[in-house]
C-alpha cells in the first residue's frame, strides 16, 4: 500500500546555495544540467510508504543547476503548506491540514474502451496545448463522447489543488462550438471515467496534484494566468498506453482548434483523427497482402484432381468418391447443364440436402460457367418460390416431386443431368470475377436478399488460411451445415481446394449429438466447423462419452462465441493437440473475415476478441458518418479487401447503401456490416453485437423486421413487434407480439411456419390490446410483457405418473415454459437444438436414449411419454 501524494518541483536560482540553512533533504546528482528536471520528475513520482514521514524532500543537482523536489501526503498536507516547505522544516513545524478533495471525489467507473494491460499503469505524458481552460474542457467532452459512444458525458472537474471535486455534464450531440465552450453543467450524481484537475503554475516550478491517478484518465491542467502552460496526463492500467497517448493528443489538438473555428460550426464536423492517424488505424486493421493463387474454383479443383486422382474426396455413408470420380461426374453433369442452356452467369438453383449429389451439382454448375443458388429443401414452399422468382431461375436441380410449382421453370433430378458421357470438358473460363454463388440472407424489407459472391473470393479465402491452419490432404472434414448457410461454402471448398476428405453428415445424424459424435470418432475427423450453439452440445456429449477423437482443429463461425463455454473442452483436450479458432464473418464478405486462436487464458479472461483480419481482408471501425474511429472506441465494423461481395442481386439501391466505394486508403470498396465492434491497439477486433435489429440464431443471420413484416402482411393483424431474448446456453427465443383484429395467435404462428424457415419462426405469439410506446412514438421493446403461456390443463389419468412428471420437467426446462400433456414441442417454441438438449438431459438423468427422428414423429408430450415408456418396456 502506498500513500496518495502530491509534489512541487522548485528550480533554485543560483543552484544548491539557494537552499536555506537547516532545511534537511536527500541529495541526488544528475548526469548533466539538462537532465536535472527529468531526474526531479522521477523523484516526484516515487511512491511514499505509509510509515514514512508525511513529507519527503530531495535536492537534485548537476553543476550549478538544482531542483528541489518536495513530495507530501496530500491527505495530510495542503498545497499551500507544500509550497512553504521550501523554507520550513516540516519535521519541526508540521501543521496537518487535510485536503478536502479526497473526501469529496466522485466515484470512478470502468473504462469500456480502455483495453488496458495489467501492470502498465500511469502512462504519464506532457502534452502542449494552445488555448485556455474552457477550450480544454470542451475538447475533453468531445473526445470522451466519441470514446464512450454517447451524446452526453459526465466527468469530474477539480477547480484548484485543494478545492472540492464536482461532476459536470456536457451535451455534444447537435451542438455548435459556441455551445461547447459555454461552462459545463454541474450535476450531483454519476460516475466519471475522466477527471480534470486545474491548478495554477508560476514560472519554472512544477506542481503535480496527484501521483496516483484518482480516475482511470486524469488530466492535470496547469494554468499561467488564463493560458494553459502544460497538461500532464495520468492513466491507470485500465487504459492501454497507446490508447492513452492517442486520447491525450486528440484532446490537445481539438482544444487548439476550438479557438480557431467559427463559433456556429457543428462540433460533430470536427475530425478526431488526422489523416496520418486515420491511415495508421487502417493499417492496424489490415490483414496484409492477399496470397497469390488460382482465382477460378473449377480450375483449382481440377489441379488437385490431376495431382491426386485416387485420393478420396467425398465420403457419403459407405460410398467413397475419389477426386477423379468427382471430377468426371461433375464434368458429365456440367455437359447436361449446358444442354439446358446453362452458360456464363446463368443462375441455377440447387435444392438438395447434404449428400454427394449436392457437391457434384455445385461443382458442375461452376464448370458449366453458371452460378449456383443454394436452397434448403426443408424451407417452406413460399420461401422457395420467392427465391426462385427473385433469382430468376429457369432451372433447379432437385426433386420435381417436392419442389413447389414456380411457373416457367424446370426442376431436374441430379441423376438425369449426368446420364450422357461428358466428352472433352471445355477449359474453365479465366474469370475470377464471375459469380460462384448467390446465397440469400434475411432482409429487413420482409423478403430475403441474394448476396452475389465471385469465385476469386472463395479462392482467396482458402489461400488466406491454408498455411496458418495447416490445411492439406491429410485432413478429414465434415459437411455439417445446410448449403443455404454460407458456413457450408467454407466446409466444401475449404476441404476440396486443399485436397482433404469431406465426410457428408446425414440429416438425422446432424440432429443427434450422439450419432454425430460416433461419426467423428469413426471417420477420424480432424477439422470440424461448428456454430458455438451446436458445439456446446458436443462438449456435453464428449464429457459423457469420452471417445477417442482425432480432432486437431475446431473452427467456430456463424455466431458470437462465449469463450467460457470451452473450459470443460480444454480440460479434456489440450490446446496443443486441438487448436480452437474463432472466426468472425459475414455472408457479404465471403464467410470469414478474422481469425483468433482461442487459448485457456482467453477462456479465463472472457475475451471477446475475434482476432485480426485475414490476409487480403481488412477491418476498421467507423462512426455514423463513416469516419474511422481510434482503437478502443465502439462503432460499426467495416470490412474491405478480397472477400467483399459483388453486391445484392437486383438491389442496386441497397448495394450502394451497404457496399461503399473509397472506404480505404487505396480507395477500395468496403462493406458496412451493421455489426458493432472495437479495434485493439494491436489490430485485433472485438465483436460487440448488432447495431440494428439483426440477430444470430444458431448461426443464421436474421432480420427481426423480416419476421415482423411477414406477420403484418397477414389478414387480421393491425400491429406487430418482434424481439429476441438470448439464452444462457447460447440459444435464444424469438418472441412476437401482435394487435389482432380477427386473427388468432395460432393462425399467426401457422402462417409463420408456412412462410419462414424453422429457425425464424417465433417461439411464441402474444396478443396485446396495443403495443407499448416510448415518448418518441416508437415501440418500447423493454416494456413488452413476458410471452403468454397457455395454462397447463390437468394431467390426464394415463399421464399422471412419475415418468410423465420427469419428462414434463425436462421439457419445461428446455422450453422455458409450462407444458401440458397436449403441448407440442415445436409449436411451443422448441427447435432442433432444443431436441438435442432434451435428449441430453434425459441421458444425464438415467432415462433411455430415444432416436432423434422418433422425437420428431412423437412431438406432443403425451406421444413422447408413450414413446419413452415403450422404449423402457421393450
Overview of the molecule:
By secondary structure, the chain is an alpha/beta fold. Among the domains are: 5-99, no CATH class; 103-272, Chloramphenicol Acetyltransferase, CATH 3.30.559; 319-411, Rossmann fold, CATH 3.40.50; 697-783, GMP Synthetase, Chain A, domain 3 (2-Layer Sandwich); 799-873, ACP-like (Non-ribosomal Peptide Synthetase Peptidyl Carrier Protein, Chain A, Orthogonal Bundle), CATH 1.10.1200.10. Helices cover 30% and strands 24% of the residues. The chain contains 27 helices and 38 strands. The strands form eight sheets. Strands 23, 24, 25, 26, 27, 28, 29, 31, 32 and 33 form a ten-stranded mixed sheet that branches. It has a seven-stranded mixed sheet with strand order 5-12-11-9-6-7-8. Strand 15 (347-351), helix 11 (356-367) and strand 16 form a beta-alpha-beta unit. Helix 14 (455-469) crosses helix 15 (487-496), helix 18 runs parallel beside helix 25 (832-844) and helix 24 crosses helix 27. The chain is elongated. The model is unreliable at 90-104 and 790-800 (pLDDT under 50). Residues 798-872 form the Carrier domain. It comes from Actinacidiphila acididurans. InterPro entries: AA_adenyl_dom, ACP-like_sf, AMP-bd_C, AMP-bd_C_sf, AMP-binding_CS, AMP-dep_synth/lig_dom, ANL_N_sf, PP-bd_ACP. This is Non-ribosomal peptide synthetase.
Specify the structural class: alpha/beta
Q: Supply Rg.
A: 33 Å
Amount of helix? 25-40%
- Largest sheet, strands/sense/barrel: 10 strands, mixed
Give the overall pLDDT as a whole number.
85
Amino acid at each position: 500500500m502506498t500513500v496518495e501524494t502530491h509534489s512541487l518541483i522548485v528550480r533554485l536560482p543560483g543552484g544548491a546555495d539557494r537552499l536555506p540553512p537547516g532545511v534537511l533533504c536527500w541529495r541526488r546528482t544528475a548526469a548533466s544540467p539538462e537532465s536535472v528536471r527529468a531526474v526531479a520528475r522521477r523523484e516526484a513520482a516515487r511512491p511514499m510508504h505509509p510509515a514514512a514521514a508525511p513529507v519527503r524532500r530531495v535536492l537534485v543537482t548537476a553543476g550549478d543547476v538544482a531542483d528541489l523536489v518536495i513530495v507530501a501526503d496530500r491527505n495530510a498536507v495542503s498545497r499551500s503548506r507544500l509550497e512553504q516547505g521550501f523554507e520550513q522544516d516540516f519535521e519541526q513545524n508540521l501543521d496537518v491540514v487535510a485536503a478536502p478533495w479526497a473526501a469529496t471525489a466522485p466515484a470512478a467507473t470502468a473504462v469500456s474502451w480502455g483495453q488496458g494491460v495489467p501492470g502498465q499503469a500511469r502512462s504519464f505524458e506532457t502534452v502542449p496545448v494552445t488555448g485556455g481552460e474552457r477550450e480544454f474542457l470542451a475538447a475533453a467532452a468531445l473526445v470522451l463522447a466519441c470514446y464512450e459512444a454517447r451524446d452526453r458525458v459526465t466527468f469530474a472537474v477539480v477547480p484548484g489543488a485543494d478545492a472540492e471535486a464536482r461532476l459536470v455534464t456536457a451535451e455534444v450531440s447537435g451542438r455548435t462550438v459556441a455551445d461547447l465552450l459555454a461552462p459545463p453543467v454541474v450535476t450531483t450524481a454519476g460516475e466519471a471515467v475522466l477527471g480534470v484537475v486545474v491548478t495554477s503554475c508560476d514560472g519554472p516550478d512544477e506542481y503535480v496534484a496527484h501521483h496516483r491517478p484518482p480516475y482511470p484518465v486524469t488530466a492535470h491542467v496547469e494554468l499561467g494566468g488564463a493560458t494553459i502552460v502544460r497538461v500532464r496526463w495520468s492513466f491507470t492500467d485500465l487504459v492501454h498506453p497507446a490508447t492513452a497517448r492517442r486520447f491525450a493528443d486528440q484532446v490537445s489538438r481539438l482544444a487548439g482548434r476550438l479557438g480557431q473555428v467559427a463559433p456556429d460550426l457543428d462540433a460533430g464536423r470536427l475530425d478526431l483523427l488526422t489523416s496520418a492517424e486515420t491511415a495508421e488505424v487502417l493499417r492496424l486493421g489490415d490483414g496484409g497482402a492477399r496470397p497469390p493463387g488460382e482465382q477460378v474454383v473449377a480450375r483449382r479443383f481440377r489441379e488437385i484432381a490431376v495431382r491426386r486422382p485416387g485420393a478420396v474426396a467425398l465420403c457419403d455413408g459407405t460410398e467413397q468418391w475419389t477426386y477423379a470420380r468427382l471430377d468426371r461426374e461433375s464434368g458429365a453433369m456440367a455437359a447436361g447443364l449446358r444442354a439446358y442452356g446453362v452458360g456464363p452467369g446463368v443462375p441455377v438453383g440447387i435444392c438438395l440436402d447434404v449428400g454427394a449429389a449436392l457437391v457434384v451439382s455445385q461443382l458442375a454448375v461452376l464448370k458449366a460457367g453458371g452460378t449456383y443458388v443454394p436452397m434448403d429443401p426443408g424451407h417452406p414452399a413460399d420461401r422457395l418460390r420467392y427465391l426462385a422468382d427473385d433469382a430468376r431461375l429457369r432451372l433447379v436441380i432437385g426433386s420435381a416431386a417436392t419442389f413447389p410449382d414456380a411457373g416457367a421453370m424446370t426442376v431436374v433430378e441430379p441423376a438425369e443431368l449426368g446420364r450422357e458421357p461428358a466428352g472433352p470438358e471445355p477449359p474453365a473460363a479465366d474469370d475470377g470475377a464471375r459469380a460462384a454463388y448467390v446465397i440469400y440472407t434475411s432482409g429487413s424489407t420482409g423478403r430475403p436478399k441474394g448476396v452475389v459472391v465471385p469465385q476469386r473470393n472463395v479462392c482467396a479465402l482458402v489461400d488466406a488460411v491454408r498455411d496458418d491452419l495447416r490445411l492439406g490432404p491429410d485432413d478429414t472434414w465434415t459437411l455439417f451445415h445446410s448449403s443455404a448457410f454460407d458456413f457450408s461454402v467454407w466446409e466444401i471448398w475449404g476441404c476440396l481446394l486443399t485436397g482433404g476428405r469431406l465426410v457428408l453428415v446425414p440429416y438425422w445424424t446432424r440432429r443427434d449429438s450422439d450419432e454425430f459424435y460416433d461419426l467423428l470418432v469413426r471417420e477420424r475427423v480432424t477439422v470440424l466447423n461448428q456454430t458455438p450453439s451446436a458445439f456446446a452440445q458436443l462438449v456435453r456429449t464428449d464429457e459423457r462419452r469420452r471417445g477417442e477423437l482425432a480432432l486437431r482443429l475446431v473452427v467456430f463461425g456463424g455466431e458470437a462465441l462465449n469463450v467460457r463455454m470451452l473450459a470443460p473442452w480444454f480440460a479434456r483436450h489440450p490446446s496443443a493437440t486441438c487448436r480452437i479458432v474463432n472466426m468472425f464473418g459475414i455472408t457479404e464478405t465471403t464467410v470469414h473475415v478474422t481469425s483468433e486462436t482461442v487459448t485457456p487464458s482467453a477462456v479465463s479472461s472472457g475475451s471477446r476478441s475475434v482476432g485480426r483480419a485475414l490476409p487480403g481482408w481488412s477491418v476498421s471501425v467507423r462512426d455514423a458518418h463513416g469516419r474511422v474511429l481510434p482503437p478502443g472506441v465502439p462503432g460499426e465494423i467495416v470490412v474491405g479487401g478480397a472477400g467483399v461481395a459483388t453486391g445484392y442481386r437486383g438491389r442496386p439501391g441497397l448495394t450502394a447503401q451497404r457496399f461503399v466505394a473509397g472506404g480505404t486508403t487505396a480507395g477500395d470498396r468496403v462493406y458496412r456490416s451493421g455489426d458493432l465492434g472495437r479495434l485493439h491497439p494491436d489490430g485485433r477486433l472485438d465483436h460487440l453485437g448488432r447495431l440494428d435489429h439483426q440477430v444470430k440464431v444458431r448461426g443464421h443471420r436474421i432480420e427481426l423486421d423480416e419476421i415482423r413484416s411477414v406477420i403484418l402482411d397477414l389478414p387480421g393483424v393491425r400491429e406487430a413487434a418482434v424481439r429476441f431474448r438470448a439464452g444462457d446456453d447460447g440459444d435464444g427465443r424469438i418472441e412476437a407480439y401482435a394487435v389482432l383484429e380477427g386473427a388468432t395467435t395460432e393462425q399467426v404462428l401457422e402462417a409463420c411456419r408456412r412462410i419462414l424457415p424453422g429457425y425464424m419462426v417465433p417461439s411464441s405469439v402474444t396478443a396485446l390490446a396495443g403495443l407499448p410506446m416510448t415518448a418518441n412514438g416508437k415501440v418500447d421493446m423493454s416494456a413488452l410483457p413476458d410471452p403468454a403461456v397457455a395454462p397447463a390443463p390437468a394431467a390426464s389419468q394415463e399421464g399422471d405418473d412419475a415418468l410423465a412428471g420427469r419428462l414434463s420437467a425436462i421439457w419445461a426446462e428446455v422450453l422455458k415454459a409450462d407444458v401440458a400433456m397436449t403441448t407440442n414441442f415445436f409449436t411451443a417454441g422448441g427447435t432442433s437444438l432444443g431436441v438435442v438438449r432434451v435428449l441430453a438431459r434425459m441421458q444425464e438423468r438415467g432415462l433411455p436414449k430415444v432416436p432423434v427422428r422418433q422425437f420428431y414423429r412423437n412431438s406432443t408430450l403425451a406421444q413422447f411419454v408413450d414413446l419413452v415408456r415403450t422404449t423402457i418396456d421393450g
